[in-house]
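haha ok so turns out i had the wrong file open the whole time. this is the CORRECT one, sorry everyone. sequence first:
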Amino acid sequence: CSTLTVCDAHAQFQAQQPTMSTDRECSNITICDLGTQFISKNETSTSDRMCSSISTCTSASQYETQQPTTYTDRMCSSLTTCDFNAQYISTNETATSDRMCADLTTCTVNSEYEAAQPTMYGDRVCEMLSTCDFNTQYISTQHTTTSDRVCSSISVCGSANEFEVTAPTMETDRVCMT
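then structure:
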């Protein structure tokens, strides 16, 4: 009779049980490369350790929500998608944080106009419409959603023989004739 081989419990597992005619077979426990792998299943006295590859977050669409550990995989989450018809990116994503979207400012009708269009990374800029002094000015060009109104000075009938034919209104100049 021969003495059975004893597996080193810290470095080996029993790969083959002994029989009446064969010795026990020991194999080395797999060593995971913890820079690229994590231990997905621990070894037992009769089975090897299992290593799995650490997941990689796709930088264009994901960010890391949990770092890998010796026994767990990296966790990735999908990046928030901004609706560029109503939002802009207010905070860029990083490898470990989500992007943030903010709602676009809406210009107030009849008191503001859009001075600068929104971009992927910037809000729309609204500015107050110019206010005409209707005692001395009239609106020569109406505002649009993207342009200010233009106020122009009301004409003054200048000479002694010039007289007013049509009085100014909020949107028309005075008409003078000789």
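The chain has no helices and 14 strands.
again sry for the mixup
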